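Example record

The entry below shows one chain as it appears in the dataset: sequence first, then structure tokens.
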Amino acid sequence: MEKLDIVLTLVFSLVMLIFMAFPAMKVTDGLEDTFGIDTKWHNFIMFSLIILFSLSIGIFLKFA
């Protein structure tokens, strides 16, 4: 059953990738205003947050 749990979490996360883009952009813009990060780091942080947010929502949907 462990493999099925991982697959279900990834499926839920894949769907949430598009919906988590806007919150990740807002958080990254806030970080840019606060800390003045470079454009290279801006894109890396934004994509990392999109993946992190979607995985966290996928895990939440799996166990809720």
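Notes for this example: The chain has a mean pLDDT of 90. Residues 2-63 form one domain.
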